[in-house]
User: What shape does this take?
Amino acid sequence: MKRPHGLLAPALVVLAAIVLVAVLFFVCPWLRLETTPVILPDAVAGEENTDPAGSSPFRKADVTPETVQAVIASLQRETAYSRTVTVRTFWQDSSSIESITEQTSDGCTLLHTGKRNLLIRPDGLWIWYDNADGVYHCRADDAGYAQADVWLRCLTYEDMLALPTRAITGAGYKLFQDTSCIYAEYTDGELGYLNRVYVSASTGLLMGCETYDGDTLVYSMTSDAPTLTPPDEALFAPPA
Assistant: This one.
């Protein structure tokens, strides 16, 4: 029997190796290369981007300006809770502070601030004042702005998800108000304000946000720890 040509033998070895790799690829799925998913840590305590447990599989690269929108979009907001939000607005020589209680359940939200009450439901918006006659009501589609985040005077962080990635200037994990949060910093709007948001990694709720005009803080919002017990359904009945 004639031996293979000198150049043919190496070619046969290479061909056999290719066939072997192909077989292993299909027989052993663990050999296949896959995109590593973003994994949220169970808790964050201490500095941003740290692993408190020492065993969490997330890495510092998991939440970056390039990935933070996808991470926040993957969160699910709690649908039933109660909390208090504090909003501060700053001017050159003065400031204001407002405390708003929020109760939310199944798409309905009741807000109370001072003597004003707002009920926001999928079928309408109601506004009335304590110890006063008269109720303002409009259909939700007529109001246009009948959204809890707007009436809470909060930044709607979902708007940030639609921004181009280049608008995101910072991201990571931070402990905010004793809550493990996903942090994002971004610029938005014609005025070029810098916004910072802190979204709870466990509840998907906005726990805080800040707006800066240059280096000057012009707005801030903080939330206390929400109570996740569903509020009484009677609270969301439209006023008579």
